[in-house]
Write a structure and sequence with these properties.
Layout: H1 4-14, H2 17-29, E1 38-42, H3 48-54, E2 59-64, H4 67-76, E3 81-83, E4 96-101, H5 111-123, E5 125-135, H6 137-140, H7 146-151, H8 163-171, E6 176-184, H9 192-200, H10 212-222, E7 235-242
């Protein structure tokens, strides 16, 4: 797994920068209830998306466990970002009208950790609030390109952010599906050269960077044409889940 503390300085440029942040924020906002006033952005990273969410009039708080990421986010949203573990959020129960996690769940170690994060997001939601999260991130990067054909023999672990699994984890805490949206990963279309770099820096967690499989895949990627030409951008999926409001008392 990548060291996101070390990744902080290059993170925005390697993840689509401002256009991707605009697209992600717009998709998140489209799934929020119109009366939402407070939002927690869990694993806010460098705060590029968080800043756009805050620019809409929402009172936004960001939380991230990587010090360098949180430091950069704090520069964009002074006083609104804290260090914290998504498995043990440093906030009281029912603190926020909405919670979002953009590109977090796919990084977790397995079902138990994913359940824990979803449980924490549900815990800090107020009744009637909405939890919005990306799902099926790895699958979004397979756009049917020649790069994907070369990568096809790699081992693929069951994704921890599968949409159906996340829906089940949410349901265990009373959250019901309330919407879905997609956004374009601007500037994240793979090139053969960038994919080789990703192989050797550990981006593909099931492939040891210095192992024989990485070497074979590197050879295949290096043989592709248009080494610097990006293939199609991925499209990422967001799912929304609502916490039910309490029923009014019977007269």
């Amino acid at each position: 797994m990548l060291d996101y503390g070390k990744e902080a300085d290059r993170y925005d440029a390697s993840r689509g920068g401002e256009p991707r942040a605009d697209a992600a924020a717009a998709a998140v906002l489209g799934l929020l209830p119109p009366d939402a006033r407070t939002l927690l952005d869990v694993a806010c990273g460098t705060g590029l998306v968080t800043r756009r969410l805050a620019g809409t009039g929402l009172r936004v708080t960001g939380v991230d466990s990587a010090h360098n990421m949180a430091r950069m986010a704090s520069g964009r949203l002074p006083g609104a970002v804290v260090l914290g573990d998504s498995r043990r959020l440093p906030f009281p129960d029912a603190s926020f009208d909405a919670v979002c996690t953009v590109w977090l769940l796919h990084l977790l170690s397995g079902a138990q950790e994913t359940r824990a994060v979803v449980a924490e997001c549900a815990r800090v939601l107020r009744p009637g609030g909405v939890f919005v999260t990306t799902v099926d991130k790895a699958a979004a990067h397979d756009v049917g390109s020649d790069i994907d054909a070369v990568l096809a023999p790699r081992p693929v672990r069951p994704a921890v952010d599968r949409g159906r699994a996340v829906e089940a984890y949410a349901a265990a805490h009373g959250l019901a599906p309330s919407g879905e949206a997609c956004f374009r990963g601007h500037g994240q279309g793979r090139t053969p050269r960038s994919t080789i770099e990703d192989l050797h820096r550990g981006w593909f967690t099931s492939i040891p960077p210095d192992g024989p499989l990485a070497a074979r895949l590197t050879e295949g990627l290096a043989a592709l044409p248009d080494q610097e030409v990006p293939r199609a951008d991925p499209r990422f999926t967001l799912r929304a889940f609502r916490m039910p409001s309490p029923r009014p008392p019977v007269a």
